Amino acid sequence: MNALRSLLKLRRRPRLSAMDGFQKLLTLLLIVLSVFMLLPIVYIFNHAFKPYHELFLYPPTFFVQEPSLQNVNELLAVTARSTVPMIRYLFNSVFVSALAVLLVTGVSALCAFPLSKHRFPGAGFVFAAILLTLMFAPEVVQIPRYLVVSEIGIMNTYFAHLLPLMAMPIGVFLLKQFVDQIPDSLLEAARIDGASEFVVFLRIVVPVCMPAIATVAILAFQNSWGNIETSALFMLDDEMKSFAFFLSTLTNNLANNVAMQGAAAVASLIMFVPNLIVFVILQSKVIATMAHSGIK
Amino acid sequence: MRESRSELGRSVSPPEAASVSVRSPGRFRTLLNEVWSYRLSYLFIAPFMLCFVAFIVVPVLAAVALSFTYFNAIESPRFIGWQNFQYLISQDLLFLKHALPNTFKFAIIVGPGGYIAAFLLAWLISQLPAVTRKWFALAMYTPSLTIGIAMSIVWLPMLTGDRIGYLNSVLLRLGWIDTPQLWVTDPSYLMNAMIGVTLWSSMGVGFLAMLAGILNVNKDYYEAARIDGMKSRLQEIWYITIPSMKPQMLFGAVMAIVTTFKTGAIGVELSGVNPTPAYSGHLIINHIDDFGFIRFEMGYAAAISVFLLLLMYASNKLSWGLFGSKGDE
Question: Could you confirm whether the keyword NADP appears in this record (chain B) (predicted)?
């Protein structure tokens, strides 16, 4: 199986078996660069737990000296005064993201399978359309999207959070490229044994494509977890908005304002950490998928 | 795209194609029959296609249609022909003096710059043993997770204009500057700050694809080249690595173009005001928001977005020309 073989190839590929001088130099260089890249990340973690007097110290300190939960309390206090508690925003975000991951992966896989393996009339056209929209950013057509959402009457519902995210061309694209690797003979054998197309999809295509599905799940999660657009445009009531939106209201105007920096840092941490965890867990699958991501 | 078209060609199997070549009504009926026999496939793709049509195809078409109208979201759209586009390219000073040049400057540095940086990093990482490779890839990819929301909180304290800002405090201590600089509110610095921050976070999906592509190049090619007398690693990259991973290079390029053009909020986030000071960070995407959601000139905003879509399409065509595979490979 091609997909499997390339997976194995990724595991063991010592191009130059022992570390030579070049590699040692390179490792050093990359360590310096990584530290630079990760500096701001380390910084959010520290900033979130700095008590007030440390936040505005001069000269500024990078690492927190007396970690405290003062900022967490402040964040909770902000929302205690407002009509919508923070936990509601968090619930919206978790609920929408979980559903979005399930739906996006399901819908994309369902679409990718026939695109790759059934040569139905129009398949080429559909795939070409998906490939074309891969190049467009939906942000560009926000206004007509708003009109569509209000026309079909899903304003201010969870559908308006979910449905726009389900149209994720990159998900179908990655999955289709991965399904291409499955040999037709394998599917044919299952069909001869009497499996229906749906069983073939569920028992063969989905298990073999797990790396690609994991990748699409990550992308879908990132898309919905950090999404502000649907909350800002399609939600009228505050209690329907997401945590990301709530955070953006906190950080708005932060440049000219010193208040709330600590609370915003804690909220950013809450936004960022799930992304990181999901990615670290599924990382190896992503690299395996990306090997087939090429556009031919 | 070429591959998919050839697939469509194959979809009509030879015997059927021969039997229908006589008269067109027969051909139509065969097509219907074929469509019916594949009804299950259509059922499979239906959920995605519904969302795809509703939230991507229709909005794009609607944007094109609206761009030829005057529409203020209250009255119904009124057809005005090419007027929006004429105004855009001849009279809209904000667009011509700020949005367009800013976008070009931003896109040219962040697009190709970020893309080349991503390739070089991916290649450097691929030269390391597998154990360390993974951690470096993670370190480079992590910043792209902060895109959007966490961005401002991460970078503001670094770049704030008073002496508490990290950049200012470091530079002051080194003696390179005498007074704190307003990195994000001074019009002459804002653009550079935007470019720096975006480059920092640009090692995203495209970077991972290129890394995977490099790792997947057949090792034997390098061996063969070495026997044939290839000496330097630069030659290896140019003659073996890049040609064998063209598809991933193209995917990376498409991703780079999309992220470059859709990043627009960054200037507003960093400077904290919309529009940005003296329009120094005003990009086309901000111009769309300005007309669409602040002035409610939806028709004109749609015309700008059509212009942006065309710009994205043109840059994609360019990268297609560079990395697209000719015929079946």
Answer: no
